[in-house]
């Protein structure tokens, strides 16, 4: 597919390729991005104040994590009302203003839709709890097993740990593949289908450009709710499981695609889809379903050249037939930050069932090593053909906050795992915008209150303000990389691997080359090429270990 970079507003749309085919999308975890109101919680006012920063950074679109009213049992993935904004974040009018302002700056906005489950505070579930039979039909309610029904209807466990069923005082059980506060919806019920189609239109009519779909492989459960059995009783998303990836789910997305295509310009979807392999993944990317889906294998791959090459090839190969772009992800709000992941030597062949969001806590991290690799990985990601997602703070090289006190942790995983899994708070710590005096490193305008999760002191040297004029900073590298990507990589032909030796990932796209050295020995680069950008200084013209360079012939 030949693609070229585009923007909105006054900038001309190029012919032939949709804007998202080579877009860079910046993920905004709203609670932790920027606080405009001064209460220590990120919000829409804070995000609006940083739109010029994001436009200047050079991204094409934003994906904003759930912004709806929610008891926040799971960071907003427990939605109480799909047609409103959480009062801590602002109002519906603020969201509309944000969309308008972003569009004026050439940024598109994707929101997050959570169709697998609602919050237990949603009016539907409240009605179900009150005994409304029709409301119970919108969720997955069952009688228990055993003589007195005191055994759960099947053996499924929650992704967050513990059983996937909770029993009500009236004896019935309801399914929740995540927290008990997140009851799973019954997508076999046409009322559920109609409701979400209406929610899509509600936001599209307000100018939203698309949605990231949470747990997009969920929704439909095997009708008989069969036991998963001992091998796969865990609901971990990467395994074959009767709760996930049922064929009937595709019908839902055909309906959604029709709605997206009814707008001019058409709206776009990106699926969060955890399935065992790319063959299953691309079924969601057929031309009448979703436009893109995160390529999580890239994120899970250890820092080793052959593993990276294989994952890149497999992903490109898989999407070729359906005509979708690969969608490269290195980080998000669910996994250990890149710097800390690469600061540890991960197993060479990660066993998927054992993949624990890249924590490998039994090794002490070498953060400097992680930073060098993260810089190199950014150049690799941004040189690849397709779409790229950047999670907030990765452009500053933030590391995972691994030593949060158990008392401040908020992720339900921490409690549901009986305090054995610290959960995902460590990648959700509020961003350090400035080093000015105050309790929260410039996260709030006056820094008067602590941020909702405490920031580590070590971040004082990693703030936006520290980095913005530093030629060697992460931020400077990202800005340069995004500028060059727009000018040169976008529109370049598909990659051709270069013969580069065991520790290198090297490819050409048109006149450009990307070289990544995952080893420790310095690597010779082609002498006839000019270095456009490198993640570390070259030594005698060679690329040091754990570094990357972009070259031009
Ligand atoms: O995540 C779905 C999912 O299966 C995971 O990435 C999950 O966080 C992981 O299994 C834990 O091991 C999505 C959201 O990204 C996540 O933040 C939500 O908690 C989850 O859905 C429930 O809505």
Relevant terms:
553 residues; alpha/beta; eight-stranded parallel sheet; 16 helices; 18 strands; disordered N terminus; binds 1-O-alpha-D-glucopyranosyl-D-fructose
Structural commentary:
With 553 residues, the chain is of the alpha/beta class. Helix content is 26%, strand content 13%. The chain has 16 helices and 18 strands. It has helices spanning 30-33, 44-49, 51-57, 92-104, 123-129, 133-136, 190-204, 249-261, 278-282, 296-300, 305-320, 338-342, 367-383, 412-416, 464-467, 474-489, and strands at 24-28, 61-64, 108-113, 141-142, 165-167, 173-175, 210-213, 268-271, 292-293, 327-329, 387-391, 496-497, 504-509, 512-517, 523-524, 530-534, 542-543, 547-552. The strands form four sheets. An eight-stranded parallel β-sheet has the order 9-8-7-3-2-1-11-10. A five-stranded antiparallel β-sheet has the order 12-13-14-18-16. A hairpin with a 2-residue loop joins β13 (504-509) and β14. α13 (367-383) runs parallel beside α16. The longest helix is centred in the last third of the chain and has 17 residues, at 367-383. It starts with 23 loop residues before the first strand and ends with a strand. Mean pLDDT is 92; it is low at 1-14.
Query: Strand order within the widest sheet?
Result: 9-8-7-3-2-1-11-10
* Cα-to-Cα separation, first versus last residue: 23 Å
Q: Radius of gyration, Cα only, in angstroms?
A: 23 Å
Q: Helix content range of the residues, please?
A: 25-40%
Low-confidence stretches: 1-14
Bound heterogens, unique: 1-O-alpha-D-glucopyranosyl-D-fructose
Largest sheet, in brief, is: 8 strands, parallel
Number of helices: 16
State the shape.
globular
Helix/strand/pairing category: alpha/beta
Strand content: 5-15%
Summed over residues and divided by their number, the pLDDT gives a mean of 92
Number of strands: 18
